Amino acid sequence: MSLLEIKNVSINYHTNDKTVYAVQDVSMNVDEQDSVGIVGESGSGKSTLAMGILRLLPENIIETSGEALLEGEDILAMDTKHLQEVRWMKMSVVFQKSMNALSPVHRIGYQMEDIYRVHYPNEDKKVIQDKIYSLLKMVNLPERVYMSYPHELSGGMMQRVAIALSLIFEPKLLIMDEATTALDVVTQTQILNEIIDLEKNMNIARIMITHDMSVVASTCKKVVVMYAGRIMEQGLVNDVLVNPQHPYTKGLMSSFPSFTGERKNLKGIEGNLPDMSIYPTGCVFAPRCPFATERCHKEIPQLKKYGDNWEVACFQSGGTSNE
Amino acid sequence: MRKYILKRLGSGALVVLFSVLFNFVIIRLAPGDPTRLLAGKDNPSPETIAALRERFGLDKPLLEQFWIYFKQLLHGDFGYSYVSSLTVWELIRSRIVPTLLIAFTGAFLGLLIGTALGIIAARKKGSKFDMFMCSISYFFDSTPSFWLGLMMILLFASILKWFPTYGMYNVRQNYTGMAHVLDVAYHMVLPVTTLVLIDIPYYFRIARSSILQTMSEDFIMTLRATGMSEQKIFFKYVMRNAIIPTVTVFGITLAYMITGVAMIEIVFAWPGMGRLMLDSITKRDYPTLSAIYLLLSISVAVMTIVVDVVYAWIDPRIRIE
Asked: CA within 20 to 30 Å of B242's CA: A14, A106, B64, B179, which one?
């Protein structure tokens, strides 16, 4: 059994006059100690998927279907009380804007203590403080951070605080939503290396949401490529990023410069994301796809096995059907 | 923190000092002459006017007048009113308590009710209650206080006869002790209600929008993700972050309290500072006016400092020197 099994999850936003199909029919697995990168351009639904799994979307305007089994329990169907017990104990999250990750008017240590008490309300203050100091040390932060306010730290330090906070209960699953995107590359690399060390020691599986292919390539085992709310291709980083099968993945890869290859013009992908409030009749990528045939516009391609741990949703890829 | 407070105190004292000078000059630059008004007749004799000018010291050069005034002030002496035979201090003393009575009660109730309603509306954003409160707040917000006061008198005093139409106490009965207190409270109901109705929309909208804004901050998402209950997030984290704009508005209201309810005082014939100020303006009662403005500027300076200190206490980001 996988740590996290996402089965046919769809998430729609309802606004006054229309429905936005933000995530459609997404299925993926995260094993223990796995590291999965979810990539895609802005609006591809990758953050909505993560926030949906964390149940952090405004529930009055969204409609979710499918299952997200965390150690066999469906998060999407949990009642509030049980959800609050599971949160942070089994899965935690690091957000992009870590400068705002904590309340600006309370001391960092105080907030971490308070969060610790959410799950261990009667724990001794000394024990909690020791735990927090050791966490701060683990992410290479000085002790003074405990008594500091968020505005007194730099972006990189706050990111470390957010990471320390996310590890406070040693969760099984850590979701990083664009967690290092706002940092400079040097700090980003440092922090990513630290995380990889930490998760080895603590047996943590990580989902990394990013639009930075190089981050995925260097820190993840598996990659999920999303476009317009759907998975286009998923598999091992070594397969998918080396020999992409889906035209969209190919397009994404040619949108990034390569260090080793010859200098050539970056291509990018022609066209824009489709209107997500219109339910597609065919492949969502077909309007921008250079290889699209008549069938692509009429029928939605399902994910098909292309190899071991490798799935592609394209009629052209020539994989074998799952069914 | 101490340095922060000392700095604020210093700038507050400077503001008061400047406003003393400024008010003194501005009042005397304004058109109109107290001696002409006091002399009364259509064509007062130049002798009367000259006598009055000499008596009030208005014949001396402006700078000398200011010096005399300033020396008096340092002794805590506001001088005599031109119009009545009382000292300015006696005049103000009799008026300031009634004003503070209705202004503070009104501001305090407005703060409590408005903020409470704002909190409820924000927590139930988009609900019928929220929409009702939002639309009615615009109604009361655009209502002039004197008109609302008049309507209150018309409805509750003239037609329903529940409350007195004017004044602070019943002049026919010389109530004493508890009866007097109750009588004043009874007279306070309409003016205070008017003030509260005018104040509520401010506090309502500020509390509501500030809470909604705080609720959309990223750290609320973090706290939710940790499994913290909505109750705790709201009362411990949202409130402290959202309260600053309310503190500002309440502070400003308190600062202008001594003259800020002049309209209501006039409509309800309430013997307060606002009316004293307007009377002093029409009669060019320089000493009284100067004293009122001085008190106002002290009150504004003090309240600004208080608000600044409360700010810094709530929000560490403001403490930066």
From this structure: A14
Q: What is the pTM of this model?
A: 0.79
Per CATH, which fold does B96-282 belong to?
MetI-like fold (1.10.3720)
Domain of residue A249, CATH code: 3.40.50.300
User: Contact A87/B237, CB-based, under 8 Å?
Assistant: no
pLDDT tens track for A91-107: 999 988 878 889 999 99
Residue matched to tokens 């796809």 = A289
Q: What is the mean pLDDT of residues A17-22?
A: 89
pLDDT tens per residue, range A242-252: 888 898 988 88
Q: Using DSSP, state whether A310 is helix, strand or coil.
A: strand
Distance between CA atoms of residues B305 and B13, nearest Å: 10
DSSP code of B237? I
For residues B190-206, average pLDDT? 91
On average, the pLDDT of chain B sits at: 86
3-class DSSP assignment, residue A76 = helix
At residue A258, the pLDDT reads 61
Predicted local distance difference test score (pLDDT) of residue B63: 84
Q: Phi and psi at residue B264, in whole multiples of 5°?
A: -65, -40
Identify the bridge partners of residue A176 per DSSP, sorted by sequence position: A94, A208
Please enumerate in sequence order all residues whose Cβ is within 8 A of that of A99, keeping only pairs 6 or more positions apart, or say none.
Answer: A150, A155, A158
C-alpha to C-alpha distance for A37 and A9, rounded to whole angstroms:
18
Q: Any idea what the Cα angle at residue B163 is, between residues B159 and B167, rounded to 5°? A: 115
Nearest 5°: the CA angle A8, A9, A12 is: 135
Tokens at A91, concatenated: 């899965």
Using CB atoms, which residue from B225, B314, B316 is nearest to A87? B225
Contact B316 A104 (CB under 8 A): yes
Residue A144 has pLDDT above 90, yes or no: yes
Under a CB-based contact definition with an 8 Å cutoff, are residues B262 and B275 in contact? yes
How many degrees, rounded to 5, is the angle at CA B176 between CA B175 and CA B179? 70
- Position A161 pLDDT exceeds 50: yes
Minimal Cα–Cα distance from B212 to chain A, Å?
A: 14
ipTM of the complex: 0.86
Q: Measured between alpha carbons, how far is A321 from A314 in angstroms, rounded to an integer?
A: 11
Cα B258 to Cα B274: distance, rounded to the nearest angstrom: 7
Query: How many domains does chain A divide into?
Result: 1
Distance, CA of B306 to CA of A270 (rounded, Å): 60
* Average model confidence (pLDDT) across chain A: 87
Domain membership of residue A29 (yes or no) is yes
Task: Give the residue among A185, A184, A179 at the shortest CA–CA distance from A161.
Answer: A179
- Asked if B314's CB is within 8 angstroms of A149's CB, the reply is no
From B283, B287, B284, B279, select the one nearest B262 (Cα to Cα).
B279
Q: Collect all residues with Cβ–Cβ distance below 8 Å to A68 and sequence separation of at least 6.
A: A4, A5, A6, A7, A9, A52, A53, A74, A75, A76
- CA torsion A178→A183→A186→A190, rounded to 10°? -60
In a domain, A207, yes or no: yes
Q: Is residue A128 part of a domain?
A: no
pLDDT grade for A162, boundaries at 50, 70 and 90: very high
The whole domain housing A269 covers 4-90+171-312
